[in-house]
Amino acid sequence: xxxxxxxxxxxxxxxxxxxxxxxxxxxxxxxxxxxxxxxxxxxxxxxxxxxxxxxxxxxxxxxxxxxxxxxxxxxxxxxxxxxxxxxxxxxxxxxxxxxxxxxxxxxxxxxxxxxxxxxxxxxxxxxxxxxxxxxxxxxxxxxxxxxxxxxxxxxxxxxxxxxxxxxxxxxxxxxxxxxxxxxxxxxxxxxxxxxxxxxxxxxxxxxxxxxxxxxxxxxxxxxxxxxxxxxxxxxxxxxxxxxxxxxxxxxxxxxxxxxxxxxxxxxxxxxxxxxxxxxxxxxxxxxxxxxxxxxxxxxxxxxxxxxxxxxxxxxxxxxxxxxxxxxxxxxxxxxxxxxxxxxxxx
Length: 346
Fold this sequence. Notes:
Blueprint: E1 2-4, H1 7-14, E2 30-31, E3 34-38, H2 45-52, E4 59-60, H3 62-74, E5 78-88, E6 91-100, E7 103-110, H4 117-121, H5 134-150, E8 157-165, E9 170-178, E10 184-191, H6 198-203, H7 222-238, E11 246-254, E12 260-268, H8 288-292, E13 301-305, E14 340-344
Parallel strand pairs: 1-3, 3-6, 7-9, 10-12
Antiparallel strand pairs: 2-4, 5-6, 8-9, 11-12, 13-14
């Protein structure tokens, strides 16, 4: 039998909790004779009983009760579920007490001024007309906060306000944004750099601390910083032979009172590599001189013949710290008397 209990009976049964085992000598499970439902307003009693997976007339164990609670939560309809068992007139009764989630009527955002409103709204994934999931609301609030942090508004505060209606069966959600001021980078600090000064590294970045002039406001831009750390600094080090260079960590330390921040970049430079030589072999359709034009490294090229190649690497050094574009010689060297290997290098 599936029915609704009176409030007095519900209070009495709600004080009971399922027990993992009965007293010594009693069976570990009992036959389920009746299911009673309380607290429901939108979801019918039959729907709750069916979603619980419990069957009348079958033995009921503690694990069955736990599984029923999990199945009911999985429907997304309830904020709280309690199940109690007892016997009355020799019959086993299961009492399911639920607290339903309110239906989300509408959601909106307010207080957005410095960012495009659609950029903020795109981070909210809430279905109107469905039971409101508090975890989904919190995830949306966190995503909005992340959008502002990425734009440099580290002092922004986002609140999810709820307005209930119809005896708390329906709700409206408003994401209230207090943008605050955009964080300004007052200082840029490097850690782990031993081969290059911090001033040199800062000069390679587009993200720079605020300065005296108005065009040096030090505004924080997450996309610009990502490009600095993943492209500009690695390129700077790579062109100087530090191919093992890595940005280990970047931290923005913000003063909540002033809105000023210190950007700390921790790097691992590694050791510089030197180009000992590049040998062009296996070319049949194109001459070594033609292939050499595409060689970006100012290093040695070995060719065979009675004359040196007309295109040699005219560089003043072969270390990666002095990379520059190689140009062909203006005139060929005198022809030797016998065939030999030629090496053109700086």
